[in-house]
Design goal:
The protein is mainly α and 75 residues long. The chain has a domain of 35 residues. Helices cover 43% and strands 8% of the residues. Helix 1 packs across helix 2. The longest helix is centred in the middle third of the chain and has 20 residues.
Length: 75
């Protein structure tokens, strides 16, 4: 979901203009960003807790590239 879509939904559900809703979304994201830059976590009920840093809480093993196919020999 893009920020604009989130603002549109917020505007509909809270009976405010899309511009006011977009401002609210910007403020929330700015606060999240600021907390994380300061090394603090930020919790959003229903979404989880956001933490800064590079530590991964889950193992991530990216897919390995497939080896190239051998070329057919020309006679």
């Amino acid at each position: 979901m893009k920020k604009e879509q989130l603002a549109r939904r917020l505007a509909k559900k809270s009976h405010m203009t899309e511009g006011a809703a977009a401002d609210q979304v910007d403020r929330i994201l700015s606060d999240l960003h600021q907390h994380m830059r300061n090394g603090q976590s930020a919790s959003l009920p229903g979404l989880g807790t956001f933490r800064s840093g590079r530590k991964q809480d889950f193992p991530f093993d990216p897919p390995k590239p497939k080896p190239p196919k051998p070329k057919k020999e020309s006679r």
